[in-house]
Amino acid sequence: MKALFQHTAITQGVAVRVAVSFLPEQSQPDAGKWFWVYHIRIENHSHETLQLMTRHWRITDAGGRVGLVDGDGVVGEQPLLKPGESHDYVSGCPLDTAHGSMEGFYTFHRENGEPFEVRIPFFPLAAPATAD
């Protein structure tokens, strides 16, 4: 299945594309639990080799509660991207509300070791309305 990327941010030649889907089979609205899966593609359009070192996420639910997630790499990897290469991964996000949002940044290192931040675009998390 080909991902339909709905959100994109480009920082210093690095594109971050996001496709997000609500997963009703992983959600339990009656118990106040909703779950989304997101597919991210990181594309290196710069002229140098870059390595993704860390991630920083800001996850906000419909009640305005904010969760911050910081860690090394993405899904256990710190991909090295040569010019023209891309890296795809899939992860998920549970919320206690039917709506919310995610955004953040990755820290990459250039070949000379210099760090820089690459923006992850803001994207909404929205469960479809259900008929009563």
From TrEMBL:
<dbReference type="Pfam" id="PF04379">
    <property type="entry name" value="DUF525"/>
</dbReference>
<dbReference type="InterPro" id="IPR007474">
    <property type="entry name" value="ApaG_domain"/>
</dbReference>
<feature type="domain" description="ApaG">
    <location>
        <begin position="8"/>
        <end position="132"/>
    </location>
</feature>
<dbReference type="InterPro" id="IPR036767">
    <property type="entry name" value="ApaG_sf"/>
</dbReference>
<dbReference type="InterPro" id="IPR050718">
    <property type="entry name" value="ApaG-like"/>
</dbReference>
<dbReference type="InterPro" id="IPR023065">
    <property type="entry name" value="Uncharacterised_ApaG"/>
</dbReference>
<protein>
    <recommendedName>
        <fullName>Protein ApaG</fullName>
    </recommendedName>
</protein>
